[in-house]
Amino acid sequence: MSCTARNKVLRDETCIKSLGRVADKRTVREGLTICLERARIMTDVFRKTEGEPMCIRRAKALAAVLDTMTLFTRPGELIVGCYASSDKGLPTYPELYWRWLEKAVTKLPDYAAMLDEEGRKELFEIHEYWKPFSIHGRERDYIPPGRAWRIGDFITGGWMWQWEISTPNYEKILSVGLDGIVSEIDRILERFLSDVSLPTERRMRALDELRAMKIATEAAARWGRRYASMLQEHKKSVTDPERVRELERMIEVCRQVPAGPARNLHEALQFFIFITFIVNYIDQPQVGNGIRFDKVMGPFLEKDLQDGALDRARAKELVEAVWVKMQEGGYVQPPQWVNNGGGGLGFQTITLGGTDELGNDITNEMTYLALEVTGELQTIAPQIAVRIHDGTPAGLYRAILKCARTGCAQPAVFNDKVNVPRLVELGCPLEEARLYSINNCMQPVIPGKNCHYRAGHSGGLVLPMCLNLALDEGRFNGKVVGAPTPPVSSMRSFEDVWRAFSAQVEFAAETLGIISNIADVLMKEYIPRPFLSAVLDGNIEHGRDMRDWEYLGLRHHLVFGCNNAADGLAAIKKLVFEEGKLTLEEFVEAVRNNYEGKHERVRLMIERDAPKFGNDDDYVDLISRDIMRLVRAQCDRWTDIYGKPYILDGTTASAPIGAGMILPATFDGRKAGEPFHDGSISPVQGRDTSGPTATIRSVAKVKPLETGNFLLNQKFMPAFFDPEHYDVMEGYLKTLKDLGIHHVQFNCVDARTLIDARENPEKYRDLIVRVAGYSAYFIDLDRAMQDEIIRRTEQAF
Amino acid sequence: MDMNPREAKGTIFNIQHFSIHDGPGIRTTVFLKGCPLRCAWCSNPESISSAVQIRVTPHRCEGCGRCVAACPRGALSLVGGRVRFDRRGCDDCLVCVDACVNGCISTVGTVIDAQSLVERLVKDRPFYEHTGGGVTVSGGEPLSQPAFTRCVLEGLHRLGIETALDTSGCSPWEAFEEVLPHVDLVLFDIKHPDPARHVEATHADNALILENLRRLAGQVAIWTRTPLVPGYNDGPEVTDEIVSMAREVGAKRCWFLPLHRWGEHKYECLGMPNPYPAFEDVSPEMLEALRRRYLHMDGFVLIEKS
User: What ipTM score was computed for the predicted complex, to two decimals?
Assistant: First the structure.
């Protein structure tokens, strides 16, 4: 069975909110606009509420947006939801930023084209109001001297205003409805009002918070009914009796949720989309989600199937509709993120599989349905994460492989054996750790808990650049931006280089921490989130905003290029200090000259003679491990504003490409402009030439529990996912689980990748072609054979 | 006679991790150099000679000329910006291999001792355990280096690793006897049942091969494997005979592996004439006919994808 025609059409007509490089050209549409509606309404409310508590102002502004924003429906859709006034609109958030957007729409044609003259005028007027308050840039007032450096927004300095990720308690809100949440707020409000034993300030603040939650939650509850009216109106223009019946069902659904509890799957899914849109697009730009989709939705599906209210085909159509809806999300992003973050997409992640609080597997019919939809619909959102553990049923392994085989690069597979103990180590009770889900940064969070998973707002820690700084006394382009380490001429041993490198990493991590914490204080002060607070545990009963505390310390630093640094350090160790093939000065000179001209010799020497991570070679693998340990130690040393240590995150999305584009040559032989490796622990592109199991063995040496997060991307030819190899691949996944690999992303290569490999063989040395008794690297085949494989790969999809 | 596994040396040309076609599960396949047969369709021509060879991959050449300058015998030259190698002028001193920085000139074949090889093969053990996999010793003909092969297989068995021997069958029975105690599965090639046709395509008689196959019956698990070559052994009479031979010796599986051209590019790199233009491609129709013919033996007769 394949996806339904209507959802295919909706998928293809979805305006992918990406301004730069796009994942799938097929679905791109021109004509993105900046939608000012949200900003306009917000600004209006803020002008009128001067002097009121910030949480109340935010709640009133959100309520006004929800109550008055334009609502529309796309032809044929079964699940509704809007966050901008048209399907091509991207909202903007002037309370968070204005400077880069103003610059972008003035100077960059792509951005300028998103507004007409009138729109630009209005945007600037809105910005005029926000300039004194808008928080991006205000950190500059607090940054200590010598720390505000930036290297193209990547080592520090480019702090971000998004990526905050908490997952609402969907199980609770779906069962009581937002009206139920409002009643709970009322009860607690009553209690705080009468409890004079509390310190006055605490009591007053709690009352403000609770009133804000109430305003916001009531407005969210009303939102469904606004959709019901809009659909009612829309129905008048529809003549197809089948569609009229559908619209009637949808109207009924929107009358019920999110105010009332969800009574069936359709209501539950619609409820979920409403909340997702409010939390992630309308209130604040937030990537994430982290819903355990099968755990939350499975019981609704089973009940509907049992009651005969739904058959599997209709259920599938509804799930498809949710996927299509999630693909619609997006917001305007800064130009530098268009290249690194994938443009304007607001990615959301769905988690499947895993256990309940007692460790029992929860796989259900929805798990399989969701994977089936993912493979067939091939949307670029949501991202799918599947948890595996000892009790994962064989059928789920197959479903994972079947999905991966479609070439959708989904799902990502997460290992409970690493994630659960890691959460426990961070202070989470075991029963709750077992309930983890995966957020969009591919990190575990506990759904419903105030997890504050947030990228240190400050950009990323680019490890290979720390090595460059270490070998240039902390200078970048001649300017001191790092720790003042000794000159190269005084370095006599590899240990000297390592010491300087460590000092740079320490300095960079500290700088990230400082800026990140400043940003957190600003966010806490100026961007409270009453609605999200109301749907997370532990806020209503204490009358506090989610930003006042955190359940788990999951503030992270984005770390990347670990293995570019490891390969670079290994090259220095071997070529300079062990074999004496070149001096450290010559090496530095070659990197400074981008390995050009006579320095090309050095690059070739690195390529040929230096060990590379990913080939099960302790020489370099243990350097990689030491780097990750070093970073982990630095993260532990620096705590967030709630007193919890930072963690490191290396999922990085496409940031390694964006960062690579603007950063100079590095010591691993990478030339200026080339990408860094993806994930946190993947080998550098094309340098793992000893097969996938050797790569796994290398990665397994860098213990996730000791060092933090790992993402390993592995590329496979589609043939590995043929049904006759399911047993083998299932065993492969189980082996990864036992080896304690944190997370693996299979990329079943598509024809486009192979064409790229044919043209750029140096990036694809790892691609293996296998048949009985024979194997070869793809890049070694002659062109005719390569073309033949490309042709077959095209056919396979 | 026992041999010190550190002293038993052999020549291999590849260790392929994550093999999924050469026996059950995830396997590591080690390919040994040297083969008594000269099959016209050989996809691993580097396996034929038992010596270490020089391989020149022309499309990797960037025309830097380092090798030309290094060669003491003038066997290398640049033609049209790419290296040209005159094998007749070469005395295998290998200085060109060291000089080449582009991975264009390299050697095929490494001499290694059995102990070191076992240490490398054992690394993927966790993968074998979840998939019923193990190590496959292939070639070339692994029994052309019988003492070494035995040492490797024995070393693996001592560590509890399942082993498979991928053989052309063309070796003295004594060689089989020597290794058999340490082999769990034999992948046995049957190229053609007819002696004359066998000689024609492989330059070797099949009497010894078939004799060995019969003697193996009942001693070890067997999978037969037949490279399916159009116009040579793809006719129903021939395949029927192969299938019944497999049955007679109690093979667990009877594989047909359609001819492929994946190894074609290797011939030029080794300075060998390319035999493939003489072959037709395996047609989907032929495979379908074969599949249907043995549908009733599904699970026994197996056909690899082309």
Answer: 0.82
